[in-house]
Write a structure and sequence with these properties.
153 residues, alpha+beta, five-stranded antiparallel beta sheet, 5 strands
Amino acid sequence: MNNSTANLFKDGSFWLLDDYTDGVYISDTENHHLIYMNNVGRRMFGIAPDADIRELLCHEVLHGCGTPCSFCMPELLSENRYYVWEQFNNIIGKHVVLRDRLIKVNGRTLRLQTITEAETKEQMEQQKWYDAFNERFDGTFILYSEIDKYFPQ
């Protein structure tokens, strides 16, 4: 994360992510406490918009587990690229495509994850294709509405 991006998060405010169209959460990699969850994520997991989530544990809220998830695998994450994976989430009852990466904020290493719901396996595969396409551009996301610029019909 470059300095200008880090400054956006300096005060712990992640307001830029509030209107993101997918669920987004940020958790502490050391103690698994949730630090932030955007409005879409709160709706997905049934958390009130004004609820204080700072004492909630990600594995309890996102997966209903009493201990950290066996598939957490923070060693696969880096600050330089997204780790993309899929699963069926029992809490929301849907297949999801997940994108994880590490971010540094005020000297702390945090996990940032986006959660995209997919109603079907086909939608999940399509989302993974978009992610692979975006990876060609060093992790820079391209608006899906602009995809035709790169693959005209």
